[in-house]
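Aim 2 progress update. The chain analyzed this quarter is reproduced below.
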Amino acid sequence: MELPQSLRSAIENLLESVSHSELLTDAQNISMRYRSQRGKEEPLITEETEALAYAASRMPATYGAIHTALENSLAQVTYRPKTLVDVGAGTGAASWAADSILNLDNITCIEKENAMLDIGKELMKHGSDTLRSAKWIKNDLVTTDIPDADLVIAAYVLNEIAGNKRKDVIKKLWSAADMMLLIVEPGTPAGYLSLMEARRLLLEIGAHVASPCTHENACPKEGNDWCHFTCRISRSRLHRQLKGGEAPFEDEKFSYLCVVREKCNLQGIRVLRHPLVYSGYVQLEVCASDGIKNMKLSKKDGEKYKRARKASAGTLLFSDDMV
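Predicted structure tokens:
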């Protein structure tokens, strides 16, 4: 997956005025802060050059994770949101991802850090009419009210909120979502635990799961492992330099949860790990309505085998009665 060309060009144009060494230093500092300060509600990015370094080094992966999660979620419903609130918007990755999939009428972005907000607004000047007219609100998610929208996206946000405040924030997010709430977090044990807290609470207050779960029972992974998926993101030359890697791509691990107002007809099995493809058969770890399963499909399984060979972590496969 790649960033929209207009976004990639906008980032590159903004970076022309910043030295490579300064960007590299800022990218490394940001990475260190995210590892050590998450959940402490301390500012992670305050300077313009730091926001630019974030846009260059982290925005592609964030965009890819949100784009993948939103596509998977929309596949479970028949309606399409027309309005979006991007909560903890950062430099606007969620808005760009949603705009690339949906025909949105309007977008509202909420961000508390001036540096991120300013860069996000500047980048959106190069987007669609809807992106260019997006409304930006400078405010703290913990203290501000969230305006209603068909779709509310909170990406890489919950882990930055102190645990004793997280439940109130989750309720606030759900209250604002007229149709759909999408939460995306890092594909780590901590990110997964935040999502499980949100999942339990949201089901208690009447939300219904759309994706990635194929049921609304207790998560069979909890306590033993964590559920996460991967999307592959193309890297530019500068992106590779800032991340200290040579590969032309990076694999972003992420966890996500999408809940909706109307109960979905949940069917099928979700692939949890990349399939192991051997000569003549495929091994899969999947989540079904009755728990985690390890499946082995061979050529004699026909179409199911063909589909399984092409699957990846996160793919929704055939309905349960075909398992």
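The mean pLDDT is 87. The radius of gyration is 20 Å. These observations will guide the mutagenesis experiments scheduled for the next reporting period.
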